[in-house]
Amino acid sequence: MEDLFKLQQEADEQRIAEYNAALKIQAWFRGNRIRKYMRFLHDTAAKIQSTFRMFTTRKRYYVKVKEALVQRKEAEAHKAAAKIQKIWRGYYTRKYIHNYYARRNYLLAVEERNIEIREQLARFAQNQKEIKEREERMKFEEEKILLARKHHYMMSTYQQNGVFASPWFPNTGFEDLISQVPPLSKEERKNLMKPVKSEGLEKNSPRELPPLKNVIQPKQQGPFRDPTICCVLAYNPTITPVIMLPVITHQYT
Question: Where do Basic and acidic residues bias regions lie (predicted)?
Fold first, then answer.
């Protein structure tokens, strides 16, 4: 009896350990089964979602491809229509509006006319330039002749060379010009001495400048003649050039 009681007591003590072990085994088994089932559900949901997304994406893609094809066909149709219209309008314009060959001939004639006008303008400009140069030369010659007539009293004499025939300076030909032109007459000199009028205002010539007011003009020091006397002597053709020197060469002259 004692042995039976001990065996029963040992069995009761091991029953709790066996129960806990059975619980652990069941929990592990059920956990594995649940996790496996959850993985199955997750994989199945992923497949369903991927299939649905693939379907919707393909549907949108097919719609866009269809729209692109429609736009491409419309663009090709517009391009073909524009080409047809261009050909037709070109034909209609050339036939009923204006003639291409006549227009080309007109433009060629305009180009030739432009070339002729440019040549005429170039010749006209050259002629104007020559006329201007000729007038300037004539004006220069007239001024030179007038200057020679003004300085006719400086012409060389038998006793003494003139200012423009000095042996110390090169001959410029002005002495020959003075000998060829006549001197100015009294009337011409008076006309040159008259004041010049310009733009409605009277301007005195350089020989008749008005004296400065309120200015004391000191007398020049030295053996010099009065400027008015020198001016009269300089423009008096009857007096020889020797007398026209403004400086008194002798103290008692």
Answer: 188-206
